[in-house]
Amino acid sequence: MSQHLVAPSLLAADFTQLAAEMALVNRSQADWLHFDVMDGRFVPNISFGFPIMEAVQKLCQKPLDVHLMILEPEKYISAFRDAGAAVITVHYEACVHLHRTIQEIKASGAKAGVALNPHTPIELLDDILEDVDLILLMSVNPGFGGQKFIYRTIPKIRRLKDRLIERNLSPLIEIDGGVGLQNAEELLKAGANVLVAGNSVFGAKDPEATIAQLKAIGEEVYKF
Ligand SMILES: O=C(CO)[C@@H](O)[C@H](O)COP(=O)(O)O
């Protein structure tokens, strides 16, 4: 038995204080740092890319969990791996050749994840479940931090978990968007293994304590 993972999302950090924010993450019980890349095409926002990732890589001792909210992610797999990504997640909706892209991520040496938008049914992953290390369920529409959690994600997690059990598979289930102390227990009970938390961590009075509380919640345990 092991524990679920907590991944604070860099998107909600104070970039004028990047070194201090990364020192906080290093001191904390956070398992990963979630790194959201947005291209203004797949999602209606632009976030950050390689220069910031290089800076973060120098400052952050936690594995970088890179979430590519971009079209044609296959063009950038090796560059993100070279920049220090430990996990690379691409969107089902953004990949014409998802199987090929997942294989390319694995060949790069990174763990491979696939993400689903809130409206995309998990059944569409049936033929890729065996190939991925992680499935990221978006619990808000991707593109912005600080949005309201979409509650229908909870039964979706359960459905995915049941399907994985049926198939005797164990990729991690990561939940991203509107996650915090108010819903973490329910998410873990439904089957989540990784909690991405942006504003609920970096916007908290005591981010380090909030990460510790997110870690302390839940009985289900998991190690990557
Ligand atoms: O991918 C995204 C948004 O598209 C997330 O990773 C957000 O960064 C999560 O932020 P909060 O909803 O936790 O504030």
TrEMBL record:
Its cofactor is Mn(2+); Fe(2+); Zn(2+); Co(2+). Pfam families: Ribul_P_3_epim. The active site is at D36, D176. It is an enzyme of class 5 (isomerase). GO terms for molecular function: D-ribulose-phosphate 3-epimerase activity; metal ion binding. GO terms for biological process: pentose catabolic process; pentose-phosphate shunt. The keyword Isomerase applies. Binds 1 divalent metal cation per subunit. Keywords: Carbohydrate metabolism, Cobalt, Isomerase, Manganese, Metal-binding, Zinc. InterPro entries: Aldolase_TIM, Ribul_P_3_epim, Ribul_P_3_epim-like, RibuloseP-bd_barrel. One of its GO terms (cellular component) is cytoplasm. Substrate binds at S9, H67, G143, F144, G145, G146, D176, G177, G178. A divalent metal cation binds at H34, D36, H67, D176. Its EC number is 5.1.3.1. Pathway: Carbohydrate degradation. It catalyses: D-ribulose 5-phosphate = D-xylulose 5-phosphate. Catalyzes the reversible epimerization of D-ribulose 5-phosphate to D-xylulose 5-phosphate. Belongs to the ribulose-phosphate 3-epimerase family. This is Ribulose-phosphate 3-epimerase. It comes from Haliscomenobacter hydrossis (strain ATCC 27775 / DSM 1100 / LMG 10767 / O). The gene is rpe.
